[in-house]
Amino acid sequence: MRLSPDEMIFWQYDFVKLNATIVFTWGLMFVLAVGSKLVTRKLSRDLQRSRWQNLLEIVVTAIEKQIEEVGLSQPRKYLAFIGTIFLFIAAAALCTIIPGFQAPTASLSTTVALALCVLVAVPLFGIAEQSLGGYLKSYVSPTVIMLPFNLISEVSRTLALAVRLFGNMMSGSMIIAILLVITPFIFPIVMTLLGLLTGMVQAYIFSILAAVYIAAATRTHQPRPETESVPAHDV
């Protein structure tokens, strides 16, 4: 019983290993890239549109709306990054219904890689929005004493993102594997469907947290406008 795709080795030479995590990750990225190319190949502005284009517009509009509700005033700037993360995690969960496929997000190495992508993207978006000096000032605001705490926060939330996604995805795989051993076949099917729902929820939570971190990094502090004094004779 394999609980992690890291345990499934396809090829090995000395210390170099090609495990299921690498194969399924790159395979999933290839499918998403080819699928997006095919879906966006013949986009139409007319009222008559293909079902794939309608589905694509529904997904993109929903992601864009969620990004805007988080607090990012220009969601189109962050749609590519956050949308890609959501689609990758969601597709990894949906593909678990394919026999022999194991979600790469059930491996800690994959979740750490996704969390590191967020770790790198947050300061990049923050610097693009506030400039380098403005972004670095946020680490010592309101006082320089906050610098080590802000640095610890960056590391801890990255670790929390990775462990949270890994724990939830691997726990679902573990429960299904155990049920396949001790219960009839029909019950694990129900649990598999529940696992698909859990995977979609985890994709939503991960992408929303990424958007929240980016919103915090790109938030500019504008000075409050001074209230105009009212003349005494107008009171």
For the largest beta-sheet, the strand count, sense and barrel status come to: 2 strands, antiparallel
Helix and strand pattern: EEHHHHHH
Strand content: under 5%
Question: What gyration radius follows from the Cα positions, in whole Å?
Answer: 23 Å
How many individual domains? Answer: 1
- Low-pLDDT ranges: 221-235
Mean pLDDT: 79
What is the straight-line distance between the termini?
80 Å
Strand order of the largest sheet: 1-2
Descriptive report:
- It is built from six helices and two strands.
- The chain is mainly alpha-helical.
- The chain has one domain (5-41, 49-220).
- The chain has a two-stranded antiparallel sheet.
- α4 runs parallel beside α6 (186-218).
Which descriptors would you attach to this protein?
mainly alpha, 67% helix, single chain, 2 strands, 6 helices, disordered C terminus, globular
